[in-house]
Design a protein that fits this description.
about 230 residues; alpha/beta; four-stranded antiparallel β-sheet; 6 helices; globular
Length: about 230
């Protein structure tokens, strides 16, 4: 479960106040709103990258408002993917496990599992510099999921990809959603993304969040099952 209660955030002249919403465990929620409405700000608060002035963030029913990002155990994909450019794709995928003290065999097994699922087997030993937009987003998604988080935060993950690649990424996220192993909060301004993926749609308008059921189609198996 992901929830915020009476959240207040201020940055310069921009402010959100009294924001409350909840995403049920295992649901895929899409957070929508106009550019500049505060979607990314809310995601950063949930991730622990920005501290609220008031209110609470709850993950798995626990108040994590004062915990640093690493202690929240969430997977996070920022807008620009933020790959480690001096590392190989293999090293990027294994990073979160390595910093958590996983052994080499465990890291290698998980990297191989994710690379197969994401179609990255042919680029594992390339540095992250020079990857296509679609390859970079796949690596960012794999890095975020590598340590088996049960909460995944996505900030406009389809912005830098073409239509064909967007469809392939949709299928991968469909597989994550079908698994119900991960609670997802996905920021976008695209209704097409919401229609394709969302169990729950959160609309941020005027500093308030309203909730409605998603309009996703029936489950399908276009991508291999998520190796969660």
């Amino acid at each position: 479960m992901v929830a915020v209660e009476n959240l207040a955030v201020r940055q310069g002249a921009f402010a959100l106040d009294g924001v409350t919403f909840a995403v049920p465990a295992g649901a895929f929620a899409v957070l929508m709103g106009r550019t500049g409405s505060g979607k990314t700000t809310l995601l950063e608060v949930v991730a622990g990258l920005r501290r609220p002035r008031a209110g609470r963030v709850l993950l798995r029913g626990r108040d994590v408002s004062r915990l640093p990002p690493a202690a929240r155990a969430v997977g996070y994909v920022p807008q620009d993917s933020a790959l480690f450019r001096t590392m190989t794709v293999r090293e990027n995928l294994g990073f979160a496990l390595a910093v958590r003290g996983a052994g080499r065999a465990e890291v290698a097994a998980r990297v191989g599992e994710l690379a197969g699922w994401l179609g990255l087997g042919g680029v594992l030993d390339r540095r992250a510099v020079g990857l296509s937009g679609g390859e970079a987003q796949r690596v960012a998604l794999g890095r975020a999921l590598a340590f088996h988080p049960d909460v995944l935060l996505l900030d406009e993950p389809f912005n830098a990809v073409d239509e064909e690649t967007r469809g392939e990424l949709f299928d991968l996220l469909d597989a994550v959603r079908r698994s119900r192993a991960v609670t997802v909060l996905h920021v976008t301004h695209s209704r097409a993304e919401a229609d394709r993926l969302a169990d729950v749609v959160l609309e941020l308008v005027g500093g308030r969040v309203t909730t409605r059921p998603g309009g996703r189609p029936a489950d399908r198996a276009a991508a291999p099952p998520y190796p969660g």
